[in-house]
Write a structure and sequence with these properties.
The structure holds two protein chains of two kinds.
Chain A (H helix, E strand, L loop, with lengths): L8 E5 L4 E6 L7 E8 L6 E6 L4 E2 L4 E4 L5 E6 L8 E9 L13 E6 L1
Parallel strand pairs in A: 1-9
Antiparallel strand pairs in A: 2-7, 3-4, 3-8, 5-6, 6-7, 8-9
Chain B lengths: L4 E3 L2 E4 L5 E6 L6 E8 L3 E9 L2 E4 L8 E7 L2 E6 L8 E8 L10 E2 L3 E5 L1
The chains are: A mainly beta, B mainly beta.
Chain lengths: ~110, ~120
């Protein structure tokens, strides 16, 4: 069963911030939100994860709402190389090592 | 570390032939995963191992598929006999839990299988 819903596709102008939303209304208290991306013809790549607080690393920022029912991945200055499918995944707790469910994700196109 | 290494990168075979895909996980990782990706079904988990032991193979499509992990640094996914509907990209991933329920998977580049 899908735990997350994401828009099918999005466009973003090069150099602008890309904001990718994800709904996870059934998330439980001990589950983390993970983001991966898959550039064409490559394997999925981990981007970032979070539990409650907002997180930032060298690739992106993750904003999680206070009720934890949704989150947004932010690529602050999108480049053409950020064109990829972005997957939002929820998992954790005592079933931390349970199956990772990859839904269809959001296909992000960065436009020159 | 070189990351997760898969071989071959591309495999073309004829229906009925045996196919063996190989994976070398990241050193020190104790979980290994095999995924299959197709346009129709997306990315599906086939099987995963913990400390070389298969934990969940419920995603394996049928008895023609088998996976082994004889040691911590090597795993194989075998299809025998292969069929055209097995054509897909097969990914291997490995991970090591970071504590507090956090687990980040690192994926290989994949093997693109074409069964004619």
């Amino acid at each position: 069963d899908a735990k997350t819903t994401q828009p099918t596709s999005m466009d973003c102008a090069e150099g602008r911030a890309a904001n990718l939303p994800c709904n996870h209304s059934t998330i439980s208290g001990n589950e983390y939100v993970y983001w991966y991306r898959q550039i064409h013809s490559q394997g999925p790549q981990y981007i970032i994860h979070g539990l409650k607080n907002n997180e930032t690393n060298e690739m992106a920022s993750l904003i999680i709402t206070e009720d934890r029912k949704s989150s947004t991945l932010i690529l602050p200055h999108a480049t053409l190389r950020d064109t990829a499918v972005y997957y939002c995944i929820v998992r954790g707790g005592k079933t931390s090592y349970d199956k990772v469910i990859f839904g269809p994700g959001t296909s992000l196109s960065v436009i020159p | 570390d070189a990351g997760v290494i898969q071989s071959p990168r591309h495999e073309v075979t004829e229906m009925g032939q045996e196919v063996t895909l190989r994976c070398k996980p990241i050193s020190g990782h104790d979980y290994l995963f095999w995924y299959r990706q197709t346009m129709m079904r997306g990315l599906e988990l086939l099987i995963y191992f913990n400390n070389n032991v298969p934990i969940d193979d419920s995603g394996m499509p049928e008895d023609r598929f088998s996976a082994k992990m004889p040691n911590a640094s090597f795993s194989t996914l075998k299809i025998q006999p292969s069929e055209p509907r097995d054509s897909a990209v097969y990914f291997c991933a490995s991970s090591s839990p970071l504590g507090q329920g956090v687990d980040i998977q690192y994926f290989g580049a994949g093997t693109r299988l074409s069964v004619l």
